[in-house]
Each structure stands twice: as structure tokens, then as C-alpha cells.
Amino acid sequence: MSSSAASASSMVRGHSDPEKAALELANSLEKSLRGRPPTFILWFAKGYGGQKTEILGSTLAEYNARRGYSAVVVGSSSEGGVIGGGEEAQEEQHAL
């Protein structure tokens, strides 16, 4: 039995605008998934506190909904650092 499950990981650095960062991340993940719809998106953000964190999550959810995907989107913020796309970001002010 073959599985169509796929996974992808990506890192976006340096965008203080949470909407721009989320859209760049979504585009990167979509390319990595090669047309497969995501079922679950787990994101971690550094440097986006308070309302900016909400913008990240809602932008990712809206991006997926516009494409007809029904992925569950869950995220969290961190001030210590984040990992994605095989990279670690600790020193950057903003990373997703």
C-alpha cells in the first residue's frame, strides 16, 4: 500500500511584517509539497509577539482556504529560537 502523505519544512527570515512572512512561508511550503494539499500546518515564530502572532496564523489559514485546502493550522511564538527547513534561527529578530 502506497501512501500519498508528504511533509515539508521551510524557514523565512527577516520580515518584520507578519503577513508578508506568512505568505512567503506558505508559497515555499506549497512548492515543496508539489501540488499535494497540506492536512496539518504547524508553525513556530520568533519575534512576532501579541497581535502579530494572530496575523501569522490567520494569514496561513486564509491562504490555504483560498486554495480549497482544509489544513489544520496551529502555531506558537518563541523568543529563544525556531527550527525549519533544516535551519535554526536564534540570532535573527524575526523568523518563521
What keywords describe this structure?
alpha+beta, two-stranded parallel ribbon, two-stranded antiparallel sheet, 2 helices, globular
Describe this structure in words.
The chain is α+β, with helices and mostly antiparallel strands and 96 residues long. The chain is built from two helices and four strands; from the N terminus they run αβαβββ. Strands 1-2 form a two-stranded parallel ribbon. Strands 3-4 form a two-stranded antiparallel sheet. Helix 1 runs parallel beside helix 2. The radius of gyration is 13 Å and the shape is globular.
Q: How are the strands of the biggest sheet laid out side by side?
A: 1-2
What do the pLDDT scores average to? 89
Number of strands: 4
Gyration radius (Cα, Å) is 13 Å
What low-confidence regions span 5 or more consecutive residues with pLDDT below 50? none
In short:
The chain has 96 residues and is α+β, with helices and mostly antiparallel strands.
Question: Would you spell out the secondary-structure blueprint of this structure?
Answer:
Layout: H1 18-33, E1 40-46, H2 51-66, E2 72-78, E3 82-84, E4 87-89
Parallel strand pairs: 1-2
Antiparallel strand pairs: 3-4
